[in-house]
Amino acid sequence: RRIGIPTWAGALILIVWAGILITTVTFVGLARREGREVNVYFELFEVMFRTGSLVFGGEQVVLPMLQAEVVPSWMNKDQFLQGFGLAQLMPGSFLNFSSYLGGVHRGVAGGLLAYLGMFAPGVILTFGMVPLWARLRHAKWFKSSLNGVNAAAIGFLGAACVILWVGAVVTAADAMVFLIAGTLAGVYDISASFVILAGGIFGAVLHADTLNLGQVEWCTLVKGGDL
Predict the structure, then answer these.
(1) Do the Cβ atoms of 101 and 68 come closer than 8 Å?
(2) Residue 124 CA from chain centroid, whole number
(3) Run of H or E including 192
(4) What would the DSSP string read from start to end of 149-164?
(5) Are 46 and 28 in contact (CB under 8 A)?
(6) How far, in Å, CA of 110 to CA of 93, rounded?
(7) How far apart are CA 23 and CA 4, in angstroms?
(8) What is the pLDDT of residues 114-144, one digit of tens each?
(9) Number of other CB atoms surrounding residue 35 within 10 Å
């Protein structure tokens, strides 16, 4: 009521969101099963819209889902992790990462379409849920559902940490940079931009082409061996 959207309009907005999601997912899924070629831009939008519809509990929860979707079909793991670091360095939402993914895959048009697909669900769901929130927040089943969603989001955050650790921390130098960055952020509360900048500087200093320090595997498990 406060934002001028009646309950029926909120429900209609949610139906529009569900319609877009179901239509795109169904079309792409059927095309793949039948062996038909899917328009790359339509598929790109479907991936981002579907992923953006599942952003609960924080933006980083989409990282495992995005990696599963785009690596190695759109890019390799190194490009994915480099884009993640770049997105963390840039101001604004982490979901700007979607523009990077779309841009690497299909140029400027792909970047813009990926950005639209990732952000559209959040905007649609916000305007759809606000008129219904006053009623839903008192429903016991809704509160229980939110508890389950929060638990799942924490699980995705854990998965994101594992993915980043395995993919980015390979040598002892990487582990040292990790510890330095973690200390700056967790103990001294330094902003993410400065932490990433510091990580880049330390990484360059320790690199094999500079001081060549710590350029050995920190753990044989990284290569699938035994401790």
Answers:
(1) no
(2) 19
(3) helix 192-206
(4) HHHHHHHHHHHHHHHH
(5) yes
(6) 18
(7) 29
(8) 999 999 999 999 999 888 887 787 888 888 8
(9) 6
User: What's the rounded mean pLDDT across residues 206-210?
Assistant: 88
Q: pTM of the prediction?
A: 0.78
Give the integer Cα–Cα distance in Å for 213 and 220: 18
* Rounded distance between C-alpha atoms, residue 150 and residue 137, angstroms: 15
How much is the average pLDDT of 82-104? 84
Tokens at 69, concatenated? 């979707």
* Position 61 pLDDT exceeds 80: no
Residue partners of 154: CB distance under 8 A and separation at least 6: 57
CA 91, CA 194: separation in Å to the nearest integer? 12
Check whether the bond before 72 is cis (ω within 30° of 0). yes
Within 13 Å, how many C-alpha atoms sit on residue 65's CB side? 23
Structure token pair of residue 227 = 């401790």
Give pLDDT, residue 104.
95
Identify which of 19, 24, 60, 58 has the alpha carbon closest to the alpha carbon of residue 44: 24
- Tokens representing residue 203 in the block: 């990484």
Report the C-alpha gap between 61 and 174 in whole angstroms.
23
Q: What is the CA radius of gyration of the chain?
A: 21
Residue 51 has pLDDT above 50, yes or no: yes
d(CA 159, CA 155): 6
With a CB cutoff of 8 Å and minimum separation 6, the contacts of 85 are: 196
